[in-house]
Structure formats: C-alpha cells, structure tokens
Design goal:
By secondary structure, this protein is of the alpha/beta class. It contains 12 helices and 9 strands. Strands 1-9-8-7-6-5-4 form a 7-stranded parallel β-sheet. It has a two-stranded antiparallel sheet with strand order 2-3.
C-alpha cells in the first residue's frame, strides 16, 4: 500500500515541507501553503492560465477582460511564486525517481470561484467557462512539461481539486447578488469540461479530489480520471456504492482516513472504517492493497507543522494495518 498527502499544509516554509514530504509519504507532492500570499489553490491555478488574465479583488480572483498576462500584477506574482516553488523542488528532488504528485484546482471549482469582468462567477457564462477550461488545460499541459523538465524520470500524478462540483451539479452556487443560485450543470456537461483538463495532463496519471458526502464519482471516471480522492468518513451509502463500481472498473481509490483536526488516531482506528466498508461491499481484498491512503483533506488548517507532520507520519503505519487486515 502507498501513502500521500492531498496538497495543502500549514505555514510558509516550502523548503522544509518539501524535505518532509520527500521522506514521510510514498508519493511525494508539491505542497500548497495557503498561508503565503498567492499560495492558495485558486491562485496556483490562476498562475498557470496562460491565455487569460486575472487580478485579485477583495472578493477574490476576477478576469480582467484581456488576454495579455502582463495586464495583471497579481497574476505575475502568483506565477513567480509557483516558479520559485519549482526551483526548490528541482533542487531538493535532484536525482529523485518515482511517483510525484502536483495539485491544481479543477475547471468547475475554478468557474464557481473566479469572477467575470462584470462581477458574476464564470459559472454563469457557458462560453466563459469553456474558455477557462481550455486555458486551464493548456496551462496544465505546460506545467506538467515544466515539472518533468525540472525533475526528469518522475512518474507524475496530477490531482485536480473539485470541492465545488457537487454544488455546481446541484445548482447550489450563489449568484453575485446572493438572492439566487446559478443554474445546475448536467452530468454530461460536467464530464465534457473536466475531460478537457484531464486529457491535458497526459501522459501523467490523474486523480480528482472531492471531500463531500456524495462526490460525483461517475463524473470523475467518465471524464477519464484514473483515481478518485475522498474523505471516507463523510461518504453516504450511495457514494460507497459508486466507489465500489469505480474500484471494480480499475479506478484507484485515494482514501482519506486520517482526520485533519482533533486527536491523531492510532493506526488501527484510522484503518477501521475503510476495512469494514470494503468487506461489507464484498470488494476483492487484493484491491484493498492498491488503495492509496491520505489525510481526510488538506492539512493547511492543522494546529501546527508538528501536528500536520504527525498526521502524515501515521499514514504509513495505517497502511501496514490495512494490508494486514486485507490478508485476514
């Protein structure tokens, strides 16, 4: 069994965190440190948008209406921070071979977060959200190539974060006025836009992350994602059934088993729910050994760096516990 983190971590010292993740988990990842200016997940996605310009308003990122990236000082700062992070990754991962994961906000969460020049979310404009997905796909393709150039020989994994997609599908994203909601998006429409970005990550493997009670697993798999990352403690019965179908079809489950707050569980506690539900669903025990264990979600909200590291550290002993249970 393998372990990894989901991206975000507390504090502002990327160099120290990279040293940690290169040792603490089986799939190291490029950390996101949202405590830094322009270090949050949306800013990182805006940084790779090569064909769209945006600037940072009090309410968040907004397109400027131009195609020249030089029009946005904020966007240039976000790009500069990402380039600095890649410099550190290149230095500390020199000679590293093996899996490496990078994270990026997915197109639907970005459309539900970033505003149009006139002020409403991109989600409201069919053409604008397609343009956003295309720009994100193009930028992701360049980003993947850059990571591979800096750290040759890695088996790259791209994680697309889609926490807002359940709300998008349900028509639950508020309009700018707050008096109404944006129209819901149907499943095929959600698949089509997400697929554009998933395909752009090739030849890297992709995993879509969504910490919700009913993550749209079918949308993720139909869009071509090879893995799905979820918080197992939140899943409804219907969601578990979708997970089972996906696993049986060959999708890799990234199971969030270690909570992000509260006491750090013992390995047997962290493993219990996943193992129990696996058995109740009648899934192949050998497939359980192929699950990737993660924290329940990002760890940026951990009380300290020590707390966050302890949650990463417990993953490996939890993986051993799950592997033992799979053999029983």
């Amino acid at each position: 069994m393998t372990t990894t983190g989901l991206g975000s971590l507390p504090g502002e010292n990327l160099r120290e965190w990279l040293k940690v993740v290169l040792e603490a988990v089986d799939i190291p990842f490029l950390p996101e440190l949202p405590a830094r200016p322009y270090g949050d997940m949306v800013s990182r996605a805006v940084a790779v948008l090569g064909d769209l310009a945006a600037d940072l308003q009090p309410a968040g990122w907004r397109l400027t209406g131009g195609s020249d990236p030089r029009a946005s000082l904020d966007q240039r700062r976000a790009r500069s921070l990402l380039a600095e992070d890649l410099d550190v990754l290149e230095e500390l991962a020199d000679g590293y071979t093996g899996p490496l994961k990078v994270q990026l906000t997915g197109p639907w969460t970005l459309a539900a977060t970033v505003e149009l020049p006139r002020g409403d979310k991109l989600l409201a404009d069919y053409g604008a959200r397609r343009d956003l997905a295309d720009a994100l796909a193009h930028g992701l393709n360049d980003h993947v190539a850059e990571v591979r150039r800096r750290v040759p020989g890695v088996d790259l994994i791209v994680q697309l974060d889609e926490p807002a997609l359940p709300a998008v599908l349900a028509g639950a994203v508020p309009t700018a006025s707050g008096w109404s909601k944006h129209r819901s998006v149907d499943g095929p429409g959600a698949v089509e836009l997400l697929n554009r970005v998933v395909e752009a990550a090739s030849p890297a493997r992709t995993v879509v992350h969504c910490c919700a009670a009913r993550p749209p697993i079918e949308v993720f798999t139909k869009a071509g994602a090879g893995g799905v990352a979820v918080d197992v403690s939140l899943l409804t019965e219907a969601a578990w059934e979708q997970i089972a179908l996906a696993v049986e079809a060959g999708t890799t489950l990234y199971a969030g088993v270690v909570p992000t707050t509260g006491p750090v569980p013992r390995p047997e506690q962290a493993a219990e729910l996943l193992v129990r539900r696996w058995r109740e669903l009648g899934l192949d025990p050998e497939r359980l050994k192929q699950v990737v264990l993660t924290p329940a979600c990002g760890l940026a909200g951990a009380t300290s760096a020590v707390d966050a590291k302890s949650r990463l550290d417990v993953l490996r002993s939890t993986a051993e516990e799950v592997a033992e249970k799979a053999d029983e």
